[in-house]
Prior knowledge:
Layout: E1 27-31, E2 38-42, E3 55-59, E4 61-63, E5 67-72, E6 78-88, E7 91-97, E8 107-110, E9 115-122, E10 127-134, H1 138-145, E11 171-174, H2 186-194, E12 198-204, E13 227-231, H3 233-244, E14 249-252, H4 254-266, E15 274-278, E16 293-297, H5 304-313, H6 315-327, E17 338-341
Helix pairs in contact: 5-6
Amino acid sequence: MNIEDFDFDLPEELIAQTPLKDRTASRLCVLDKQTGRIQHQHFSDIIDYLQTGDCLVLNDTKVLPARLYGVKEDTGAKLEVLLLHQEEGDSWEVLVKPAKKVKKETVIDFGDGLLKAVCTGTKEHGGRTVEFSYQGIFYEILDELGEMPLPPYIKEQLSEKDRYQTVYAKEKGSAAAPTAGLHFTDALLQQIREKGVQIIFITLHVGLGTFRPVSVDSVEEHTMHSEFYRMSEEAADTLNQAKAEGRRIISVGTTSTRTLETIARDYDGSFAETSGWTDIFIYPPYQYQAIDGLITNFHLPKSTLIMLVSALAGKDEVLHAYHEAVKERYRFFSFGDAMLII
């Protein structure tokens, strides 16, 4: 399958640069995966498509203010450091720009000595391992010095850090937000609970690999980067019961989807308390085992994310919906509008 099969024309002005004031005010494109029928709604209407007994699965990962600006201690050269994931203790895998300035033993100073890092190893594509040193609590220092790692297609500054965070974010560890969840408010989640929908939280710490462009012509040759996930015993039991009773499992976001499908694949279509690293790559003609529906944002052309969506609803149907969304002037990507596939 060729990467060009997942291309579409997207005017640059449709890339949302800022979040809406009201999280639930975004638009909602509803795609029937059986018939291909499209409806245009608002996100607050999502409750009308959820049924009593449904399981709504959300990723409770919390985005770290993972972009740091520092200087080389010996020369004062400016550096940008992006935290990817914690390896052990104060050792982290990071991306550095410009990478050529940072070799093993290089010391980087952040915030006039409030935080320091020494490079302990090098990886591919600008990757480094560093060991941080500091006085106090690391995450409090990170909150003070770090910036939210917004995707490169967002050029505007974010005035409020929490707008690139879901209202239910809890488990620190992501380098990017699970953006489908940005549309929910506490009030909407309460309405959904009152309708008899079970809300379940799982964790997948989003890495940059999810958003890396596909650089090969053949889809099958692309390799995903691994991301850490966790499912609790309570979540697994609830989902297994729903499956046994024929109730729907609706995933919020591609990150929740990849976690659910990874676990279902490993446990013969069921769920279990587990954690680990997943590099699952979902594209047509993948057969879903875990989910019945998906709430997601609109994704980049030729991305692994539009492939995942196409595997659920059909490539032609998804691309038709995307063409409709462009025609209707939907807002795209992280701060953009949403799609429900059901």
